[in-house]
Design brief:
Helix 2 crosses helix 8 and helix 4 runs parallel beside helix 6. The chain has a 5-stranded mixed sheet with strand order 8-15-14-10-11, with no helix packed on it. It is α/β, with parallel strands linked by helices. It has 5 domains: 92 residues, Immunoglobulins (Immunoglobulin-like, Sandwich); 86 residues, Immunoglobulins (Immunoglobulin-like, Sandwich), CATH 2.60.40.10; 34 residues; 169 residues, Toll/interleukin-1 receptor homology (TIR) domain (Rossmann fold); 52 residues, no CATH class. The chain is built from 11 helices and 20 strands. It is rod-shaped and about 125 Å long.
């Protein structure tokens, strides 16, 4: 008898020591609803992946949970199963996982609540659990899942779905096993849902209910992609609109926000006008009309720019090279007029004026160049390399006009393009009426204006307003009247 007792103690003592020496893995808090089935699986890879034995205990009891399927609380393989769970089942349950050379323990803290679910036969608002929270993405096809975790011995019947105590019906909703599929999700689909299923175990039926709080949502990726696409569309639209209305936008900005005062860059003129002397009478007349009449009328009189035009603004008797060299350096732009006939006699090959002007503009000062075609020029290969370079870098503006009064309006497309390439003017031009009223007075005030080409501008204006002939003006430009 004593030897049997000793043998029993020798077996039980090592088991107690090993149980007390188990390593605690973690503590889980579970809050199930009373009066319905509940199950918890004791698994923790890789601890439970090998050959191990799993035993469930309640609280600090050394007596394992029953494994009889007839017991309301019993162990089913690695699961602990409550059929159903009751308020008195609250407490701490231990799952002991023993391997050949290891022992681990998982604690489960059960807090059982009495939860009033939606009763289909009784009216009233439900007190739904927020145990599960799920999200439906607006504008997409999405689904909700009824979380049912039970061992294989439990058979689950079809699942019913309710929202705010009403059974969910309609073409947008499809039930499949434990899922509810929702097509074309809308914000109205958020709310409180209940999924209900029937659990079969050992010939008995149990009702299982899960409450789900559903919210709808910025799908982040869809909204991000949509936002990027919208941003790109806006950027492309802005660039497109700007390219179309770029000239008008820039001119409006200059007009609305133009600075006052003078530009402190040491320049006296806004542009130096370089133009050819064609042999054909018709072309020479067109060039003279554009350079000596229309350019001053629009850019100087209407827009307030100051131009230097060779053969109009230099002093008689000055050396041509000196005039050009000095005045090009005083200009902010170089305006080059080209005609098809220029290809024949070689623009910039023979005329020192053209050579010096382009050299100063392109090589020394890096001056911006405005290239104006009096007629459409298809081929620039016969042009000097400097003109070809200007054409390639800055492009060309083709003259659009017929030398009538309409062509002298600064608001036409051609003049808007020229003004866009001109430097921003600092001071607004005087009204045309004021110019007409004050010009005759300036005629008699030549000595007070300081002489030079400014005197000649006033005298030319006098000749024009007093009915002077074109011949007198031409002679004046040649210096005979001085």
């Amino acid at each position: 008898m004593w030897s049997l007792l000793f043998c029993g103690l020798s077996i039980a003592l090592p088991l107690s020591v090993r149980a007390d020496g188990c390593k605690d893995i973690f503590m889980r808090n579970e809050m199930p609803s009373a009066n319905q089935p509940f199950a918890f699986n004791c698994t923790f890879p890789p601890v439970t992946s090998g050959e191990v034995s799993v035993t469930w205990y309640k609280n600090s009891s050394k007596i394992p949970v029953s494994k009889s399927i007839q017991s309301r609380i019993h162990q089913d393989e690695t699961w602990i199963l409550f059929l159903p769970i009751a308020l008195g089942d609250s407490g701490i349950y231990q799952c002991v996982i023993k391997g050949r050379d290891s022992c681990h323990r998982i604690h489960v803290n059960l807090t059982v609540f009495e939860k009033h679910w939606c009763d289909i036969s009784v009216s009233g608002l439900p007190n739904l659990s927020d145990e599960y929270k799920q999200i439906l993405h607006v504008g997409k096809d999405d689904s909700l899942t009824c979380h049912l975790h039970f061992p294989k011995s439990c058979i689950l019947d079809s699942t019913m779905w309710y929202k705010d105590c009403n059974e969910i019906k309609g073409e947008r909703f499809t039930r499949l096993e434990t899922k509810l599929f929702v097509s074309n999700v809308s914000p109205e689909d958020r709310g409180n849902y209940v999924c209900q299923t029937i659990l079969l175990h050992s010939g008995k039926k149990y009702r299982v209910l899960n409450g789900i709080t559903v919210s709808t949502t910025p799908d982040f990726r869809a909204h991000l992609i949509g936002g990027l696409i919208a941003l790109m569309a806006v950027a492309v639209s802005v660039v497109y609109i700007y390219n179309i209305f770029k000239i008008d936008i820039v001119l409006w900005y200059r007009s609305a926000f133009h600075p006052t005062g003078t530009i402190e860059d040491g320049k006296l003129y806004d542009a130096y006008v370089l133009y050819p002397k064609p042999h054909r009478e018709s072309q020479r007349h067109a060039v003279d009309a554009l350079v000596l009449k229309i350019l001053p009328e629009v850019l100087e009189r209407q827009c307030g720019y100051k131009l230097f035009i060779f053969s109009r603004d230099e002093f008689p008797g000055q050396a041509v090279a000196n005039v050009i060299d000095e005045n090009v350096k005083l200009c902010r732009r170089l305006m080059v007029i080209v005609v098809p006939e220029s290809l024949g006699f070689g623009l910039l090959k023979n005329l020192p004026e053209e050579q010096i002007a382009v050299y100063n503009a392109l090589i020394q000062d890096g001056m911006k160049v405005i290239l104006i075609e009096l007629e459409k020029i298809e081929d620039y290969t016969a042009m000097p390399e400097s003109i070809q370079y200007i054409k390639q870098k800055h492009g060309a503006i083709q003259w659009q006009g017929d030398f009538t009064e309409h062509s002298q309006c600064a608001k036409t497309k051609f003049w808007k393009t020229v003004r866009y390439h001109m430097p921003p003017r600092r001071c607004p031009p005087s009204p045309p009426v004021q110019l007409l009223q004050h010009t005759p007075c300036n005629c008699m005030a030549g000595e007070r204006m300081g002489g030079g080409h400014e005197v000649r501008h006033a005298l030319v204006g006098c000749l024009s307003l007093s009915g002077g002939s074109q011949l007198e003006e031409d002679a004046f430009h040649q210096g005979s009247l001085l």
